[in-house]
Amino acid sequence: MNISTKPIRMLVVEDHVGLAENLFEYFDNTHYVLDFAPDGLTALHLIATREYDVIVLDVMLPGLSGFEICHRIRHDIQCTTPVIMMTAKDQLKDKEEGFRAGADDYLVKPFDLRELQLRVNALYRRKEGMGKTTGIEVPGIRFDPGKLTVQVDHNGSLELSGTMARIFEALIKAYPGFLSYEQLQERIWGEKEVDMNTLRTHVYTLRKLLQDTFGFSMIKTMHGRGYRLTPPAQAGQ
């Protein structure tokens, strides 16, 4: 497995000792370096003082929930490190809450450790690729892949995080064309057969955030086909 010349630094936030031990045993090789936090406060301290490539975060934790921890990672610490949430909660509303908090991926327990490894590797590759391209512009909109910011002419800017930033980058790169559901899934998660509800939840959350910030959603649904970016001049079309 030739992922990178340097190990992937992971923080595992999990209060179940048995599962944490299984993760440490599975990832015990030269490709990964793991830290462990049994609760939210410990996790937030480590994230604020150390640098990680991927954070694996349980939802059901003593004290602060994983949702609240993820929100604080994004808004208080201003950390953009990819977050995978682990939980037994498999309802769409739970996934939506996780994505709204800033999670990049959502893994429902029980899961195969190999699947977690594939998702960790995919998030790491995308993290390494972020910020290596210059600003991307379409009429009235500019996206900075390094700062993960969207700017609209004479209408301010917005900082995105995680999966929402990758979705926006994929759509602005495809402009004036559109991306099919399968193309977008493959560019975001590296595979075509992702749960459609997961994609729809991410797009819904991103669209609402853009609407609240700029007054228009920027993302048009091509019914039965996919999504495309809509610049300000085309917002009413």
From TrEMBL:
Keyword Transcription regulation belongs to the record: yes
Pfam families xref list: Response_reg, Trans_reg_C
Signal peptide segment: none
Top-rank taxon, per record: Bacteria
Residue span(s) of domain OmpR/PhoB-type: 133-231
Sequence positions bearing 4-aspartylphosphate: D58
Keyword Transcription assigned: yes
SUPFAM superfamilies for the chain: C-terminal effector domain of the bipartite response regulators, CheY-like
Domain Response regulatory: 9-124
Keywords in alphabetical order: DNA-binding, Phosphoprotein, Transcription, Transcription regulation, Two-component regulatory system
SMART domains: REC, Trans_reg_C
CDD domains per UniProt: REC_OmpR (cd17574), trans_reg_C (cd00383)
InterPro entries named among the record's database cross-references: CheY-like_superfamily, OmpR/PhoB-type_DNA-bd, Sig_transdc_resp-reg_C-effctor, Sig_transdc_resp-reg_receiver, WalR-like, WH-like_DNA-bd_sf
Residue ranges flagged as DNA-binding region: 133-231
Name of the protein: Response regulator transcription factor
UniProt organism field: Advenella mandrilli
